[in-house]
Amino acid sequence: MSSDSSGQRELFTNHPIWEEDDVRNGVIATVVLPEGVEKPLDYLVPNELVVEVEPGRRVHVPLGKSNRPRLAYCVAVRHGEIPQHPLKSVVGVEDEKPLLSERMLELTAWMADRWMARRGDVLEAVLPAGVRLRRRVKRGPVLVVTGEQGNRRPTIHQKKVLDAAVQPTPMDVLLKETGVARSVVNRLLRTGMLAERGSIERGPETESIKHSFDSDELPVLSADQEKALQAILHPLQQGRHETIVLFGVTGSGKTEVYLQAVTETIARGQQAIVLVPEISLTPQTCDRFRARFGQVAVLHSHLTPAERHDHWREIAAGRVNVIVGARSAIFAPAPRLGLIVIDEEHENTFKQATSPRYHARDVAEWIAQKEGVPLVLGSATPSLETFARCLSGDWKMCRMPERVGGSELPAVVTVDLRDRKSRSKGAMSPRLAAGIQWALNSGGQVMLLLNRRGFATHLQCKSCGHAMHCQQCDLGLTLHQPGNRAICHGCGLVTGVPESCPACGVKDIVHRGTGTQRLEDQVRSQFRGIRVARMDTDTMRTRGSHEKTLTAFRKHEIDLLVGTQMIAKGLDFPNVMLVGVINADAALHLADFRASERTCQLVTQVAGRSGRGPRGGRVVVQTSTPEHPAMRSAAVHDYEAFVRSELPIRKALLYPPFGSVIRIVVRSAVDEAAADWARYLVERLSKSAQGNESIRILGPAPAPISRIRDRYRWHLQIHGPSSELLRDLVSRSMAGLKTPQEVVWVVDVDPVEML
Known about the structure:
Blueprint: H1 2-11, E1 25-32, E2 41-44, E3 58-63, E4 68-81, E5 92-93, H2 102-114, H3 119-126, H4 129-132, E6 139-145, H5 156-164, E7 169-170, H6 171-178, H7 182-191, E8 194-201, H8 223-238, E9 243-248, H9 254-267, E10 271-275, H10 283-293, E11 297-299, H11 305-316, E12 322-325, E13 337-343, H12 360-371, E14 375-379, H13 384-391, E15 396-400, E16 411-416, H14 430-441, E17 445-449, E18 458-461, E19 478-480, E20 485-487, E21 494-496, E22 509-512, H15 516-526, E23 532-535, H16 545-554, E24 560-563, E25 576-581, H17 595-607, E26 618-623, H18 629-635, H19 639-653, E27 660-668, H20 671-688, E28 696-708, E29 711-720, H21 723-734, E30 743-749
Parallel strand pairs: 9-14, 9-15, 10-12, 10-13, 11-12, 13-14, 16-26, 17-24, 17-25, 23-24, 25-26
Antiparallel strand pairs: 1-2, 1-4, 3-4, 3-5, 6-7, 6-8, 18-22, 19-20, 20-21, 27-29, 27-30, 28-29
């Protein structure tokens, strides 16, 4: 029997003679469309395009009954048998050379699977828009002195230009060096004293300043710093991957360790990628890298598409050794990658909020493993996921428990707002007000953290208790001044404050709660004559506003800085003698399992801004729950104590890092439609998960913020021991599912936001 079946298989190993004429070999390209069709599609590559069509390039392919050409990414090319069913052919090639390497294509496939995203979305996220659109920085004219004499003697400004343009000089360089207006140059061109000699393509404006150090002048490291540096250099010099976590208190010198590790990387002829939470909020870190290495590619949101494209080309060509940027900088095409650093790795901003909802830390680990390079994660308050990886032995932790120079961590005073003696008419307790006065009298500076912007956090009728809510969102309106405007922080709706209550008609509307605007006014009123500034999204809207304010604070042109959480990140001001946390409970009781962790991280981080100078400092934390583990740990600068108290809770509930979570959010303009679809999804998931007791499905229920921009929101959560198990469950449950037109639903694997 087995002999017969074997013979049967051999008989049909080759195609029967009568089918030979139907068998054709050719080149087939697998493409992914940026939008629309989710699955990869196969197209025949015509002979004239065989050389040009290759993975990483974009091609034009016909789609649908109309065969309208669409731009698509070629992700694979194979030579082989053409299937019986007819294939459409590639009609053109968009790019001169591949935009993505094979390794980056492999990364996009992994990301699409890891975060259950469309591969087209991943490809678009990896490639900056400027690269996709082939935007280039404009070619500028090159100017040179002609020797012609004008009718009049050159003015002082004109002479500056003529002296600078003895050798051919690009227009933009000439204007920058001389400081003259463009009209001065234009006049010299009209008179013939200056002429164009071709043009030059401006290179990317990589941010650089003169080196402040050379290799012989590097700062001497402390014992902890040296130990951490050697932990990084060991795998770097061996050319292998290892993840090293620098767990160092604020002011322990983590940045200097990064800098010296990058110095060694460059000395080895390699490139380094350094990720920071947000460029505008970490200017000092960026400045230190520019000062140390000169030319640094700083990738940030204010770059034009053309500038991003030119940065991309310079990095890909290996002409820039240091790349500093936020989340998406991890995709920089460094051909000689030797080191990846993620500063403040605990920050939520490293998680993408829209599809593909990737986490830069996980992407960095994948790249570092594939490239065989060290990955360095630094924080004074590492995420619990990171801490658990270290405790398990997967990653190596280097503790840096002391500040550089031997300065002490500031004393922390906790003010219990439940105590009547601690209350005051304003937002500042008597203890905090006294601390502010002490710091100002000592010639120091003050930082006050309040993570609520606006003037008053809510508007309410004193007679009937009715609170003013946004018409489009399930959020209360926040009073902003000047202008007496009521603003929704969810959708941005702006309305005037009504004279009378919409519910009862009584003119008795009061402002309750304190935002950064009101706090600023209270500070100015209570401490007259001091220089006050405020940092929140209302005041930091223009380009360069963050840096301008922080520079003024560094120069002590500002005595007291009021701000939201943006003042808690990566700032080093030696003259800050007092930090005050107005309401440490602001995010502690949110419907999010990470609320305690984030609160402890925020209070610890902002407290670390104080006492970095020789005169030391103090911290005053105002809270209604001083007994909470997050508050107790922050008060004694013992983040590890919080970790020890929180990890058992996470383990019991199978929350990360001991399990995985997938959150599904359903949105619709009709509340019942969203609710019905959420229930249907739960039914399908429950049916597929039958028999697997390790999987828990919670919900459906209205999301904590149940309506945003007139879209009702329902959510459900799936908990399990691993991300792979949950992703498989969701994929099987949703196979072939057709979503109603009135409903939109999204899948977030390992979410960091639960609202």
